[in-house]
Amino acid sequence: FRMLPSLVRAVAEGNTARAEIVGFHLEKVAEALHHHHTGEDELLWPLLYVAARTNRTMRDVVRWVTTMTGR
Fold first, then answer.
1. Could you tell me the CA-to-CA distances from 27 to 9, 20, 31, 34, 42 in Å, in that order?
2. C-alpha separations of 69 from 37, 49, 55, 66 in Å
3. Mean pLDDT for the chain?
């Protein structure tokens, strides 16, 4: 994701074919990231919250991650 701004800036003015390719790539990366986070929210986090109820180490990990990510 970090490379995308430089890819956009590297498209020569008027090069619409390259702009379409870069735009398509950006769209797919954003879509994949969205699906990745949706999967975490729907599948992973509920399990982590359950595990955190009975496991102190897991509770500490969940607290740390939620603090760092704002979840």
1. 16, 10, 6, 10, 22
2. 12, 15, 21, 5
3. 90
Structure tokens at 52: 């955190």
Q: How far apart are CA 48 and CA 57, in angstroms?
A: 11
Q: What pLDDT digit, counting tens, does each position of 33-47 carry?
A: 999 999 999 998 898
Query: Residue-wise over 5-44: b if at least 16 C-beta within 10 A, else e?
Result: eeeeeebeeeeeeeeeebeeeeeeeeeeeeeeeeeeeeee
Q: How far apart are alpha carbons 29 and 22 in whole angstroms?
A: 10
**CB distance 64 to 71 below 8 Å:** no
Radius of gyration of the chain measured on its C-alpha atoms: 19
Single out the residue of 33, 13, 15, 35 nearest to residue 25, CA to CA.
Answer: 33
